[in-house]
Amino acid sequence: MAIILTKEEAKKIIDKVLSYSKSDEMSVNLSGGRTGNIRYARNAVSTSGESTNLSLGVTSVYGKRSGTATINEFDDVSLEKTVRRAEEIAKLAPENPEYMPMLGPQTYLNTDPYSENTAKMNPDYRAQATFESLDPCRKKNLTAAGYMEDSTRFNAIGNTKGLFAYNRETSVEFSITVRTADGLGSGYATSDVTDVSKLSTKNSTEIAMQKALASASARALEPGKYTVILEPAALVSNVDASLMVALVRSMDARNADEGRSFLSKKGGGTRLGEKLFDERVTIYSDPTNLEVPSGAFSGDGRPQEKITWIEKGVVKNMPYSRYWAEKKGVKATPPGGNFIMEGGTQSLADMIKSTEKGILVTRLWYIRPVDPQTLLYTGLTRDGTFYIENGQIKFPVKNFRFNESPVIMLNNLEAMGKPVRIGGNLVPPLKIRDFTFTSLSDAV
Amino acid sequence: MNRRDFNQLLGMGAAGIMIPTLPAFSRSVSPEALLEPGLDIAVKKRLADAALNAAKSMGATYADVRIGRYLNQFVLTRENKVQGIINSESFGVGVRVIVNGCWGFASVGDARDEAVVAKAAKTAVAIAKANARLLTEPVQLAPQKGYGEVSWKAPIKRNAFEVPIKEKVDLLLSCNAAAMQNGANFVNNVLFQVNEQKYFASTDGTYADQDIHRIGPNFTVTAVDAQSGKFSTRNSLSSPMGMGYDYLQVNPSDKLTGVTTRYNKGYDMLEDITLAAKQAKEKLTAKSVEAGKYDLVLDPSHLWLTIHESVGHPSNLTVY
């Protein structure tokens, strides 16, 4: 059987499984995919591989008791056996008082997070993309370490109440760190796409090379409050905690209602409708955005729609679980599949040019929470930190530890550049005043 | 479960959201499925030999095979409710080869016959060959003698997967109740259990069968003062352990008493969560430390990470 099933193939299997149901409600989840990767370090490929998988899960429900069983064989006897088994488990499960009945048919937006170019990637393609990154580094006596991962997958859900949803999706993520031969200069760049023909490992590598060469003889500046330009990679990461992802993921309505969120209001309730950020801050989700398309439904089958979380600095919407939304009598808006922060039209070069004194930050890492109440985080700069004076990069500086909250940061907004795709989201580079650096680090 | 998923699960304190992301490619299964024996060792050896032979016949100078069946169970509770019980199984075969001095790898989920694993070996060889053009220095392995057919089982006293769900739920809910009685407004309490059945075979002549168990009880207690709008949390002082359910056996000789009691190989969840609730409440009105230079006494809950990052990573040649 193929690993990426079409909508029709997936529906046929799901409908057959649903026909075996004897429980109050039943849902079927069918998913599969392939990932490929290539990793290099010290200018040589270290690991490279491909993985495939396909599986089917059945959840049966009696009242508020549910049970799940799965299988990766697709003959009629195995499928029916799996349904009977899920039903047996459900009868024995503890009741979940917060269980919500399954959704009926839903209407979904047409989203298209899939590219045939990415689906067709093979070992030769990955080797060539890596060559285009390694070759310039070798020629300049620089040391490259990089990782590229491509993924092609589908997911289909259906239930006895008539819901059916299908999504197929591709993505490629590439990141590169380049160091000078003496190990004193380091530069980083990252790029992620839906369609691999839009990925240039060469262009990303060139940026990392420039930063490595330019950051080699870093000077120490006193820690303190500085105007900073944070590049998108300093704001969003999928492999570590990051300031903007922390903000977007901390907006859950239930946590705010329960008094344990930065969106909880003194005396009770939430800060919905309050202006908490600079009036230029607008953040929304949109699965149909052509640059960052995402799936049309959330894990429990709710439609993903365009929704504004923060508009002109005001908290407009918060994500709800279906249970909490029903309890509060509001629409059950799921968390978004992507997020888009509006920005300006300036390029990074324009932003540097208009800076009298400041620090350019390529990337932040090892970010950990300090105080969940204020979303205060700590972490370090790395892979290219530079001092700017009179609109020009003057010299590289030693890395800093920072203590900062995205909430405070988005109040100290000086300027925003043109948004770029990062980790499946769109985020602009930001110029922030009074960003708090607390100490120096000798790490490169 | 990789390090990132594991950190995600254990780093859930901040917002009290504790529904874990399932490890990549794992499937939900019934609790009974967690007790089913994996593949017979003779079947594993046959699959492994099929992959190793296929790799060698296509020019591999070295190959190894991993057959993994990873079982996880999460019992998720908050306050007086069971939010969910997740049982998952992940099965797969991975083949790693060196061809023309270059590594290649491929894995498949549904790999119960020789033809499928031989095909994975073929993909791994194709990947190694494609990357060989980038090679400047062929991979050279240090000599390794084969160990023959060997096996190892974690020395657990009580398999967590054999403990009835009800016993686990009763423990978590009684601990949650104790927290609520001692000043907590919210409790998220998760019990995480792992059994990794790993089979490794290589062209060096090793066929190693391993049965690994881990357990990780983990809670976050939250105290809220609605009047001032402040909240504070305190996490459990347990550790993920390479043990069975025996880690949850209360044993006085495993306690290190002090201002806050700490635990070695026996974790007293009830005692810890009771103190956690009191401490979370105390923290609501605690004065902040003045920034400056101080002498510190580092508790093991801090020092382990310092050692992990400053000694562990550099000495295992991790390039981060």
What does this protein structure show overall?
The complex is a heterodimer of chains A (444) and B (320). Chain A contains 10 helices and 19 strands. Chain A is α+β, with helices and mostly antiparallel strands. Chain A has a 6-stranded antiparallel β-sheet with strand order 3-2-1-4-5-6. A 5-stranded mixed β-barrel of chain A has the order 7-12-13-15-19. In chain A, strands 10-9-8-11 form a 4-stranded antiparallel β-sheet, with no helix packed on it. Chain A folds into 2 domains: 7-208, 2-Layer Sandwich (PmbA/TldD fold); 216-243 and 343-441, no CATH class. The mean pLDDT of chain A is 95. Chain A is globular and about 70 Å long. Chain A starts with 6 loop residues before the first helix and ends with a strand. Chain B has helices at residues 3-10, 41-57, 114-131, 165-181, 269-284, 300-315, and strands spanning 27-28, 62-78, 81-99, 102-108, 148-153, 186-202, 206-225, 230-235, 255-256, 262-263. The model of chain B is unreliable at 1-25 (pLDDT under 50). Chain B has one domain: PmbA/TldD fold (2-Layer Sandwich). Chain B contains 6 helices and 10 strands. Chain B is an alpha+beta fold and 320 residues long. The two termini of chain B are 19 Å apart. Chains A and B meet through strand 1, strand 2, strand 3, helix 2 and helix 4 of A and strand 1, strand 3, strand 4, helix 3 and helix 4 of B. Strand 2 (44-62) of chain A pairs parallel with strand 4 (102-108) of chain B.
